[in-house]
Design brief:
Layout lengths: L8 H15 L6 H8 L3 H8 L2 H25 L6 H18 L7 H8 L5 H23 L9 H23 L7 H9 L4
């Protein structure tokens, strides 16, 4: 009869996500990872196998928690227009992370840059998260329009531009650079006034 796990898997994955988000994959050593996950070496290897597997699980957790809540913000009907939800994404989603004393950026963006070029599984997972964001931005762009003012092709192009802008802003703000006037930029890209 197998013994039950003596740790909370969600808490362990959250700890892994935090340490990888803080340090990056390469700079996270096993003792720091075990400490963040509150696991012994034996429990870690039994549950996850290796550091890379824990990293993949941490990315999936980030997708579920952070990308999921961002997609919900952009796609769920509310009192706000789709444009207002987009503005909130940039003003709060980028600026809040940039204003932290410790600038971590976005874990998806960090993973794309650090491991995406050399690890197919990370590249595939981050591409999936980017696609989810792009689809949600497209929904926000079309929100409340009975007959879209812009063509479907233009709206898709705008959603690509805004997705790339979002992830690029995460990387730029990680270095401590100031955020631009998001309202003016969104007006320029979308042509909407409010």
């Amino acid at each position: 009869m197998a013994r039950p796990r003596e740790f909370d898997p969600d808490k362990a994955i959250e700890g892994a996500m935090e340490i990888f988000w803080e340090n990056g994959y390469g700079a996270t050593n096993l003792p720091d990872l075990l400490d963040a996950m509150e696991l012994t070496r034996g429990s870690f290897y039994k549950a996850f196998g290796d550091k890379r597997s824990a990293y993949i699980e941490a990315l999936k957790y980030y997708d579920q928690i952070y990308i999921g809540s961002t997609v919900a913000l952009l796609t769920e009907p509310s009192e706000e227009s789709g444009y207002s939800r987009l503005l909130k994404l940039f003003e709060e989603g980028v600026n809040d992370r940039a204003s932290r004393e410790n600038r971590r950026g976005c874990l998806v963006c960090n993973a794309m840059v650090e491991l995406g070029p050399t690890d197919a599984a990370v590249a595939q997972l981050t591409a999936k998260m980017c696609a989810s964001m792009q689809e949600a931005i497209y929904v926000a762009l079309t929100d409340g329009q009975e007959a879209p003012a812009a063509s479907e092709d233009l709206l898709k192009q705008q959603s690509i531009i805004l997705t790339n802008l979002y992830f690029g802003a995460q990387a730029i703000n990680k270095a401590g650079n100031q955020s631009p006037d998001w309202k003016a930029l969104l007006r320029t890209i979308t042509g909407k006034q409010s």
